[in-house]
Amino acid sequence: MNRPSNILWAGVGTLFVLFLLSPLVLVVLFAFTSRPQSAFPIEALSLRWWQAMLANPNFLPALKNSLLISGTVGIVSAIVGTMAALSLTQLDPWRARLATALLCLPLMLPPLVLGVALLIFYSRARIPMGPQTVVMSHLLFALPFVVLVLYARLRNFDFRVVESARDLGASPLRAFFTVTLPIISPTVIGAALIATALSLDDFVITFFTIGKGMTLPTFVFAMIRTTVTPAANAVGTLILLMTIGATLTALWLTRYRG
Amino acid sequence: MRDRGATYLLLAPAALIFGTLFVLPLIYFLVISFWRVRLFKLSPDFTFVNYLQVFDLHLPTLIFTLSLAFLIAVLTTALGFTYAYLIRFKAGRWGPTLLFIALITLFGGYLMKIYSWMTILGITGVLNTALRALGIIEEPLPWLFYNVGAVVVTLVNFLLPLAVLPIYASMRGITDIEMEAARDLGAGAWRRFSDVVVPRSHPGIMAGFALCFLLAAGDYLTPQLVGGKVNMIGVQIAPQFGGLGNWPMGAAMSFVTLGSSLAVIIFALYLLSQWRPR
């Protein structure tokens, strides 16, 4: 490898990193500055936008909804996803691939189309809209991730330990809870956190299926639709902290290395 | 010990969610696209009027949307390919860090990225105020914001991790042994790239392109928030489901957008499949 090409690639890499990270870094930065616009030069650091966020009467209900919805999505998709992934390992590879591809279909649909199709479905089926319908909708895009992560883990799983437990007289359920689950639990928790982060972050599908309430992203939308206020940066930073925190923990737990 | 019944029972909850919350609503959505609205009420019918109206009223918007989404998807895939190539072949010990950044930005939030680009590109935004503070410009540059360029930048930024990850996943499968074998057989840098790296990355490139195209073509917030008057089909679809909306019309618009997007994707994938080793 010659030197000029190395320098070129280092430059390209730096530009990419700047392009990817700067929108997120700026949101965090301007959550802590004092001026009424998100702009340079920065005059002073301040927590006024965090105070503004807390003073907003819609903030706490939105936070509560967000935590409730994303927590439920994490738990339900972890349980359903683990069951599905276990089942996939026992199918022949062709069927397993077909089932995974089908489960991933909701990810290929623009969220707008999925959101409005669900809105019509709920309203025609007279299912009252609220946090419950948002949870149901989020399962559609959270579940594929959980299944993919767990299926990848279970394919490297040594099922002989489970068979030993079965030979020693454990029921399938007991073998699962005393052998399989303790071994794969970091991956299950990691996958649940990824599902939580995806749910926490979703705006479009939530917007169409929540009915009257708010979550943090729809709260931000209500703020920025009218005027640009740096208080939105504070809420955005809060969402980022939660989703990235969950993702980092998940990556660490699942030992994901690309 | 492989119990067929138990295997399918374990899959049942996921299948139930997929069936009742994805397949059923989509079929119903399709059925409704053939219905009509009479006296403000939805009434069952079997008519193609909605589809004809989509072409009558929204054809220019549709063509513009597909072209813009194509441009965005090509740009994003090319950039994503470059970034994945950098991670796999050029970055050395920095590779994992670069991959990690792509993963983190994947979870960085759709709405927050749009909002951030609003604050970056706006008249009193980050870029204008920074350039003025540095004395590079006197007056704010109005052409940074509320135009097609701003939509392209915002969407490419949002979609880039979605292109990087599948392409990198494909490239990871290319072993150093393969590359050395190609070199030993006399392939130069370009032939190793064109005959080994690109064909072996095809599945990732295709997945990344399809995903980026569909998400760009179906977007409705970015054109509204950073595009100003940029009119994409999603901007026309969303209000059909609000107070004064016409559901059958909105459903027909959605299916026309999906169908024409699939046609463009299949065409693009056909073009890509022509890139084979000589």
Description:
The complex is a heterodimer of chains A (258) and B (278). Chain A is an all-alpha fold. Chain A contains eleven helices and no strands. Chain A has helices at 3-30, 48-55, 59-90, 93-108, 111-124, 131-155, 160-167, 172-201, 204-209, 216-226, 231-254. Chain B is globular. Chain B starts with a helix and ends in a 5-residue tail after the last helix. Chain B has eleven helices and two strands. In chain B, a hairpin with a 2-residue loop joins strand 1 (36-38) and strand 2 (41-43). Classes of the chains: A mainly alpha (258), B mainly alpha (278). Chains A and B meet through helix 1, helix 3, helix 4, helix 5 and helix 6 of A and helix 1, helix 2, helix 3, helix 4 and helix 5 of B.
In short:
The complex is a heterodimer of chains A (258) and B (278). Chain A has 258 residues and is mainly α.
Profile the largest sheet of chain B.
2 strands, antiparallel
- Which chain pair has the greatest contact? A-B, 81 and 86 residues
Helix and strand sequence of chain A: HHHHHHHHHHH
Helical content band of chain B: over 70%
Instruction: Kindly state the percentage of residues in helix of chain A.
Output: over 70%
Chain oligomer state: heterodimer
In terms of DSSP E residues, the strand content of chain B is under 5%
* Beta strands of chain B, count: 2
Helix count, DSSP H or I runs of 4 or more residues of chain A: 11
Main beta sheet of chain A, described? none
What attributes does this structure have?
heterodimer, A: 258 residues, mainly alpha, B: 278 residues, two-stranded antiparallel sheet, 11 helices, 2 strands, 2% strand
